[in-house]
């Protein structure tokens, strides 16, 4: 049985990790940490897990975590980089759901996250954890940087077009919407019910910290820098995310066939039939990304619709997918949930 630990288990992504790992056939959660809730039973905080996990939150302890096969960090940015080097020395593998190891350019990372990086050497060896792009590198990784939610939806949406050099990579537009849970579980005015309900707004238009991450991923596919306009929006729903992606075509191809062929072997990317419009509710609580591709009026614009659950494929379930790859397990293990409707 694989033993794992979770650092920072009281947020939405930590809760989703617990839910998924509790149902994983080959994994046991050895430790889950929270400085502020040490001694509290997990099922007291998350009653939905009653009968599935008999654990208490504990203070982070490197010795205990170092006895795990793998540790997940579901912590604020800047936390994982303080503990990861010691865990690596102990032979423990790491999946960080925060942003500490996502960006390879450290001055850019410091600009967006407002601090100096504590372990640049670990950044160099970390693998960006988008399996559909970096599967083989993830298998051998000791540290995986789990992608952000917006980057997951956007990169998967653009990937086939950029691989085949079919679009003008200097002018890409990603118009994205996310449910309120993407802001995390902490109390904030803009996520209060009376503020977010019956409201719709853009944010981060001058610049969002996921922008350099998305550009980095797209540049890896393209083989050169890309020009991307990225505008996120907050929508009054709990979870779910859609990327509406635009690109100017420069080559000829049957876009439907292109996407179906590229993702035919991917368990967690579903290319919908021609003319479809994916819905966020069809991926709720799953590790699935559903994609539809259009060419409006047979013009020169490729329009891609990409939907995921921001808490699962955009965070926790993708982290479990990465864990499965890193530890030599079946990639789909523990990730076969069907979305709950309505």
From TrEMBL:
Q: What is its EC number?
A: 1.2.1.38
Q: Where is it located?
A: Cytoplasm
Which keywords does this chain's UniProt record carry? Amino-acid biosynthesis, Arginine biosynthesis, Cytoplasm, NADP, Oxidoreductase
One MF term in GO for this entry?
A: N-acetyl-gamma-glutamyl-phosphate reductase activity
GO biological process, any: L-arginine biosynthetic process
The reply to whether Oxidoreductase figures as a keyword in the UniProt entry is yes
A single GO cellular-component term from the record reads:
cytoplasm
Domain Semialdehyde dehydrogenase NAD-binding per the UniProt entry, residue ranges: 3-141
- Residues the record marks as active site: 149
This protein's pathway: Amino-acid biosynthesis; L-arginine biosynthesis; N(2)-acetyl-L-ornithine from L-glutamate: step 3/4
Query: Catalytic activity, per the record?
Result: N-acetyl-L-glutamate 5-semialdehyde + phosphate + NADP(+) = N-acetyl-L-glutamyl 5-phosphate + NADPH + H(+)
One matching Pfam family: Semialdhyde_dhC_1
Cited function: Catalyzes the NADPH-dependent reduction of N-acetyl-5-glutamyl phosphate to yield N-acetyl-L-glutamate 5-semialdehyde.
Q: Which PANTHER family match?
A: N-ACETYL-GAMMA-GLUTAMYL-PHOSPHATE REDUCTASE, CHLOROPLASTIC-RELATED (PTHR32338:SF10), N-ACETYL-GAMMA-GLUTAMYL-PHOSPHATE REDUCTASE, CHLOROPLASTIC-RELATED-RELATED (PTHR32338)
Q: HAMAP family from the xrefs?
A: ArgC_type1
Name the protein family.
Belongs to the NAGSA dehydrogenase family. Type 1 subfamily.
**Name this protein carries in UniProt:** N-acetyl-gamma-glutamyl-phosphate reductase
